[in-house]
Amino acid sequence: MLPGSExxxxxxxxxxxxxxxxxxxxxxxxxxxxxxxFMSGNELYVQCKGPDELVCSGFVMGxxxxxxxxxxxxxxxxxxxLPEGTHTGDLISAVVRYLEEKPELRRQRAVSVVVGxxxxxxxxxx
Length: 126
What we know:
By secondary structure, this protein is an all-alpha fold. The protein has helices at about 10-25, 40-50, 55-75, 90-100, 110-120. It has one domain: Orthogonal Bundle (10k-s Protein, Hypothetical Protein A, Chain A), CATH 1.10.890. Helices cover about 55% and strands about 0% of the residues. It is globular and about 35 Å long. The two termini are about 20 Å apart.
């Protein structure tokens, strides 16, 4: 066992580490009419359900790319495994479904919501 690897032995801890890393790496999405630093799950949901999904698509792909990069580097254990041929629309659908099934999570930061949706929709098979 590598030094410090016992810290990463819990899936819940790894999820929290992913969330912290992603929050630190992603630029804050602009929020109109408020001076907040982070987009909420509800704001992301509105963007994803709207006629122009550009903000939603960019945000979801940014989170997905960050997770993939950290997993590929070995910095975090692989918990999210996107099947071959997964498209942006598949990720957006997973996020929308996640927020529709768990509306109480819309108050969380959007980055946490995207990671949670990906963990639920695309878990690695152990």
